[in-house]
Amino acid sequence: MKETMRAVLFYAPKEIRIEEVPLPRPGPGEVLIKIGAALTCGTDFKAYRQGHKVMLASTPSLFGHEMSGTIMAAGAGVENFRAGQRVVAGNSAPCEACYFCAHGQSQLCDNLKLHNGAYAEYNLIPAHIVRRNLYVLEGHVNFTEAALAEPLACAIHAVEMLGVRAGESVAILGAGSMSLLLIQALAARRAQVIVVGRNLEHLKNAQAAGAHSVVSALESDPVAEVRRVTEGRGADCVFEAVGKTETWQMSLDLVRKGGRVCLFGGCASGTMVPLDAHRIHYSQISLHGVFHHTPRYFKAAVELIASGQIKASLLVPESIRLDDLPSYFELKHRQSNPKAAVIP
Question: Backbone phi, then psi, for 134, in 5-degree steps?
Fold first, then answer.
C-alpha cells in the first residue's frame, strides 16, 4: 500500500486545500477504508464559511463527515469486519458510560467525538465507531446511497422523537436536502406531508420525494394554506427545517391545538426567538429540540436505504472529483447548500 493519500484540509474559514498527507495505518480496533463516496453537507458548508469549534477544533483538520467505502485493512482485535467489505461509517459513536448514555440519550453523550475526513482517498475509522456505528452494505446499495445514512439517521431521530403515526398531517418548513430526507422518513410512517418553501425547484423535488402537497411561501400565505389542507385545525406535527427565527415562530402558527413541533433546524449560538407563550400553554403545544443521531437511528437509516425507499438521485444530483472540492465549496457556499457526491 502507498505511503500517502490525497485529502482536503481545513485551515480557516473559506480556506481549504487538497494536500498529500501520510496514509494512516489502523491500530487496535480500527479499520482503514478506501472512500467510495463522500457527500457535501449543509453542516460542512456552514463550517467552511465560519469554522466549527467542535468538528474543527484544531487546524489544519481533515474535513467532511458523510462517507462510505471499502475496508482495506483492519487493526488488531477487529473481529466483525475484514478487508474487502463495503461499509458505511457513522461520524460518531457514544461512550456508553456517561449519564446520558445510561439514560437512553446517547446523542447527548458527554464524550461524543465527531469524526471527520470523508473528503479524502482513505479514512481511518476509530475503534469506538468500528465497535458501535459501522455497517456492512448489501450488495445492491451503491456508495452514494449509503453515504446518505448519516443525515437520514438525523431525520429518523426527529420523526421518532415526535412519534409520528400513520395518517397524521405533518407540515415541514423548508424544502432543502434535510426536508427531502424528512419527507421520505415520514413516508415510511405513512404520514400526510405538506412542505412549505420558497424555491420552486426545491418544492418540485419535495413532491417527487413524496410530499402530498407543497406551499410556495412567495405565492400564498403558508399558515392559511396549511390550515386549509388540514380542515382548519393546523398540522398534527410541524418540522422546522430552516433554522431561522421567523420559521421557528411560524411553526407555532402551523400546528394544531395539542400538536407537536420539532425544532429541527439549528440556529446560531445566542439566537433568541420570541414565541407566543400563551398559545404554547393554552393550546398545549409540545416543542422538541432534536440533535444528531444514535447507532440505533443510524442502523435504521442503513436498513431504509437498503429497502429502496430513499430516492438518492433527488438528494444527490451531481458528482465531483476530490480534486475539485475546494473550488466547488468556493463556488457554492453562498447557495442553498447543494449536495454532491465526492468521488476520489
Answer: -130, 135
Integer CA distances (angstroms), 264 to 149, 156, 240, in order: 17, 11, 5
Quick one: which H or E segment has residue 217? Answer: none
Angle at 110 between CA 108 and CA 113, to 5 degrees: 90
Q: What is the dihedral of CA 16, 22, 23, 24, to 10 degrees?
A: -100
pLDDT of residue 62: 97
Q: How sure is the predictor about 337, in pLDDT bands with cuts at 50, 70 and 90?
A: low
Query: 3-class secondary structure for 36-89?
Result: EEEECCHHHHHHHHHCCCCCCCCCCEECCCEEEEEEEEECCCCCCCCCCCEEEE
User: pTM of the prediction?
Assistant: 0.96
Find how far residue 18's CA is from the centre of its chain.
24
- Cell representation of residue 334: 453562498
- Per the DSSP assignment, residues forming a β-bridge with 89 are 67, 134
Residues in the chain: 344
CB atoms near residue 284 (< 10 Å): 10
Q: Residue 218 burial (CB < 10 Å; 0-12/13-18/19+)?
A: exposed
